[in-house]
Amino acid sequence: MDIVVKGRKTEVPERFRKHVAEKLKLDKVQKLDGKVISLDVEVSKEPNPRQADRSDRVEITLRSRGPVVRAEAAAGDPYAALDLATAKLEARLRKQHDKRFSRRGSGRIPASDVAVSVPDAANLKPNGELATEALSEDQVPTKRVASLDVQGDGPLVVREKTHSAAPMALDQALYEMELVGHDFYLFVDAETKQPSVVYRRHGYDYGVIHLNPDSFGEEGAGGAGGALGG
């Protein structure tokens, strides 16, 4: 993999190209993201003299089998801007790397130790069944959780959240999903304005589901709740 350095409405001297190769160490980048496909560095210059302290801008774009990662910075000269952008890129890659590692479950508790390690955990019989006395249906207490009636203590757990959502592009939604460390991410597609969800399928494969608001309320429209498994 090579680093592509280009200028936008400005010339990029050979000295700066060599400095980029020295600054962006490919072995370090690939250690944080082993699926890197390309690494582009774009340099631009702000002609407004009032912004002399931020006249040079450097944008680094890393494309891999996962989401696109971008980092940009502006400073009084391109070398300082490159240092700032590189630090941002490495911080984002390191954060994604740490989240992927933590999702592997290195801190999982063995099933045999759950009763000891987790307060109020259910006791299990040797055959794996719950060591609790069975209750008749009319003895099981029912409570209201969100918009559902739940009997007993679960195992259903419901939590409702409402977020404001600015429309965003698909690659930004993938980046946000990786950033928060979830296996799915809800967003409003900036191109179609449709409520959408991106989700992880297998390895570095992703899926996306769009909801068509025009079909809301129509008979036979069907729910999308089971579609994530496809």
SSE order and pairing:
Layout: E1 3-8, H1 14-23, H2 26-32, E2 36-45, E3 56-64, E4 69-75, H3 78-102, H4 114-117, E5 142-145, E6 148-151, H5 170-180, E7 184-188, E8 195-200, E9 206-210
Parallel strand pairs: 1-2
Antiparallel strand pairs: 2-3, 3-4, 5-6, 7-8, 8-9
Structural account:
With 230 residues, the protein is α+β, with helices and mostly antiparallel strands. Helices cover 25% and strands 24% of the residues. The protein has five helices and nine strands, in the order βααβββααββαβββ. It has helices spanning 14-23, 26-32, 78-102, 114-117, 170-180, and strands spanning 3-8, 36-45, 56-64, 69-75, 142-145, 148-151, 184-188, 195-200, 206-210. The strands form three sheets. It has a four-stranded mixed sheet with strand order 1-2-3-4, covered by helices on one side. Strands 7-8-9 form a three-stranded antiparallel sheet, with helices on one face. Strand 5 (142-145) and strand 6 form a beta hairpin. Helix 1 packs parallel to helix 3 (78-102). Interacts with 100S ribosomes. Keywords: Cytoplasm, Translation regulation. Belongs to the HPF/YfiA ribosome-associated protein family. Long HPF subfamily. Residues 155-208 form the Sigma 54 modulation/S30EA ribosomal protein C-terminal domain. It holds the Pfam family Ribosomal_S30AE.
Give a nutshell description of this structure.
Belongs to the HPF/YfiA ribosome-associated protein family. Long HPF subfamily. The chain is of the alpha+beta class and 230 residues long.
